[in-house]
Amino acid sequence: MVRLPAATDTQDRGRLEDLLLHNRLWLAAPSTFNDPFDGRSAYDLTLRGTELRKELERLLRRQGMKSEEARRQVRSDVVANPEWFRQQREQHLNLIRNHLGVCALSANPRSPLLWAHYAQDHKGLCVQLRPWADPEALVAHQVEYRNDYPVMQDFDRAATGRDAMLPFLRKSTDWAYEEEWRLVEPERPNTPQPFNAGAMTGVIFGMRMTKADKAYVCELMEERQRRYGVKPKLYQAVAAARAYRVVIRKASG
User: Fold this and answer.
1) Across the strands, what pairs with 151?
2) In whole numbers, what is the pLDDT of the chain averaged over residues?
3) In this model, does residue 5 exceed pLDDT 60?
4) Parallel/antiparallel/unpaired status of strands 151-153 and 141-142
5) Phi, psi angles (nearest 5°) of residue 209
6) pTM of the model
7) CB atoms within 10 A of CB 117
8) pLDDT of 114 above 70
9) Pair 224, 141: CB distance under 8 Å
10) What is the distance between the alpha carbons of residues 17 and 4, in angstroms, rounded to a whole number?
11) Strand ranges inside the chain, DSSP E
């Protein structure tokens, strides 16, 4: 879902044109998300003695501490304090939040809540993407919904691939209506993600989208066709006749 910025909002209009004309999705840092639980995890510490100290030193160095200072910190009595462990885990989590780039997508364009929350109260639009048209740029991971945090082992020491991303691929069941999929890119926070022009297959106008905004988007679609030789199909979201749900119909333009 995409909100439609005001005509005077040049920065947000540029972001919209970045998507519709330049084929770039925005990878946001998780620290900017509206859910403070996003990316949280629990830890099971199985290491002991020397191995635990080495692991803690590595963690502190990743947080920017010099090696000598990290060794001194770990060798002090403070490591026996549970509150110290909790603080280190939180700092580690914040470090990851600030170094990941995440783009949130949904499999459900018919959800009234999604339109209300992410498309400016149904005034915005929804862009349809076909991930298999660009399997390198659009590697989407399905979010799972549970009421407990994922459990990471020893400060994610052995986690690789999807396991390392698990805290950012699980959310509370309260969010299950979103049917979310995510692009997750390490070391790319707040950056654009280019994708193949043919991967955008449709644009859905919101129920409350103004005629002026529709005309603006249609102009962008015409320009898109001139540039790339492809034009996504246009659809209109309308209210169902007998139920609280969104119906998607073909639109002119």
Assistant:
1) 42
2) 86
3) no
4) unpaired
5) -65, 135
6) 0.81
7) 14
8) yes
9) no
10) 11
11) 24-27, 42-44, 100-106, 125-129, 141-142, 144-145, 151-153, 170-171, 180-186, 191-194, 200-205, 233-239, 246-250
- Within 10 angstroms of residue 97's Cβ, the number of other Cβ atoms is 20
- Read off the pLDDT of residues 46-105 as tens digits, 9 standing for 90 and up: 666 777 778 778 877 877 888 888 887 777 655 656 677 667 777 777 777 788 899 999
Residue-level length of the chain: 253
Position 10, amino acid: T
> Under the phi-then-psi rule, with left for phi > 0, alpha for psi from -120 to 50, and beta for the rest, what region is 179?
left
Give residue-wise pLDDT tens across range 184-229: 998 899 999 999 999 999 999 999 999 999 999 999 999 999 999 9
Phi and psi at 107, nearest 5°, equal -90, 0
Nearest to 125 by CA among 196, 208, 14: 208
Q: Assess contact for 59 and 85: CB atoms under 8 A.
A: no
* pLDDT for the residue numbered 165: 82
CA 65 – CA 74 distance, rounded (Å): 12
The two beta strands, 42-44 and 151-153, are parallel
Task: Determine the Cα–Cα distance for residues 74 and 68; give it in Å rounded to an integer.
Answer: 10
What are the residue boundaries of the structural domains of the chain, listed by start? Answer: 10-29+103-149+157-250, 42-97
Q: Per-residue b/e over 15-48, b at no fewer than 16 CB within 10 Å?
A: bbeebbbebbbebbbbbeeeeeebbbbebeeeee
Q: Which long-range contacts (CB under 8 A, 24 or more apart) does 215-218 make?
A: 216/7, 217/4, 217/20, 217/125, 218/253
Least confident of 17-31, 76-90, 114-128, 163-177: 76-90
Running DSSP on this structure, what letter comes out for residue 135?
T
Answer for the pair 247, 110: CB distance below 8 angstroms, yes or no.
yes
> Beta-carbon neighbour count of residue 51 at 10 Å?
12
